[in-house]
Specification:
about 80 residues; mainly alpha; 5 helices; about 0% strand
Length: about 80
């Protein structure tokens, strides 16, 4: 069943980051450490509750071995 309230781009981006993190077998705390942010910040990003600064997005993308634009494209395709 479709959500009654459409998801935001930030929520969809967070879901993409979470899915890739899990596919790489990383814990949220590990990805946070590799990208030099706190685990709570990573949690907020994955839940679409925090705006991601471009350097942070690039760092997350690099760690997950995907271009930053690809993360954005995947999320946007879900809108």
């Amino acid at each position: 069943m479709k959500d009654l309230v459409p998801k935001t781009l930030l929520q969809l981006l967070g879901e993409e980051i979470q899915a890739l993190r899990k596919a790489h077998g990383l814990k949220q705390s590990e990805l946070a450490e590799y990208t030099d942010i706190t685990r709570s910040t990573m949690c907020e990003i994955e839940n679409g509750k925090r705006t991601i600064k471009l350097p942070t997005l690039k760092s997350i993308a690099n760690t997950l071995q995907v271009p930053a634009w690809e993360l954005l494209k995947r999320a946007e395709n879900e809108l």
